[in-house]
Amino acid sequence: EPEVTQTPSHQVTQMGQEVILRCVPISNHLYFYWYRQILGQKVEFLVSFYNNEISEKSEIFDDQFSVERPDGSNFTLKIRSTKLEDSAMYFCASSEIGQGKGGYTFGSGTRLTVV
Amino acid sequence: AQSVTQLDSHVSVSEGTPVLLRCNYSSSYSPSLFWYVQHPNKGLQLLLKYTSAATLVKGINGFEAEFKKSETSFHLTKPSAHMSDAAEYFCVVSDSRTGFQKLVFGTGTRLLVSP
Fold this sequence. Notes:
The complex is a heterodimer of chains A (about 120) and B (about 120).
Chain A: E1 5-7, E2 10-13, E3 19-24, E4 31-37, E5 43-50, E6 53-57, E7 65-68, E8 75-79, E9 88-95, E10 105-106, E11 110-114
Parallel strand pairs in A: 2-11
Antiparallel strand pairs in A: 1-3, 3-8, 4-5, 4-9, 5-6, 7-8, 9-10, 9-11
Chain B: E1 3-6, E2 10-14, E3 19-21, E4 23-26, E5 32-38, E6 44-50, E7 56-58, E8 64-68, E9 73-78, E10 87-95, E11 102-105, E12 109-114
Parallel strand pairs in B: 2-12
Antiparallel strand pairs in B: 1-4, 3-9, 5-6, 5-10, 7-8, 8-9, 10-11, 10-12
């Protein structure tokens, strides 16, 4: 069964540093997403991406964050100048269609710890 | 705005007994609803989805859920729990107002299964 692959599985970084979280979506999927889950809290939508541009972003996704699809396979989330409160599990997901009916396929997540 | 409420943060059952995980939704239009499961240190796996077809939805691993519009509920059930069912379960509603799918998660229910 096709999978969404995320690397690394764990990342520890110092406050103020930049991190890049990487994802390889399912190859025939066209819509890509990042979600995050702060420990003990809900899974929250960050951003959706389609046709090489952001289609929607949440209020969490401020100028500190950016996404990119640098080649035909990778989808990355960059967090500039990390803060302690950025510590969370970050999930990448992809879907074949963008509207309503389908479920996503999620990756296993990257646990980011900012110290 | 779309939202879901998971009524129990923890549910404990014995192996072989029925499972009921409760979810109520709030939606201004006909929603798409999902249940996802998260095993420890794993990603989010789609269990089942409701997309305005049959109101009783069957998913993987013997789980099913019934969409009840009059009660705005989408409870997850399983006739007989297995030890391997112990995990975190998320009720999710799809918000497609912008034309792009965004998932809104509940707070999760941790299912504990005892021998």
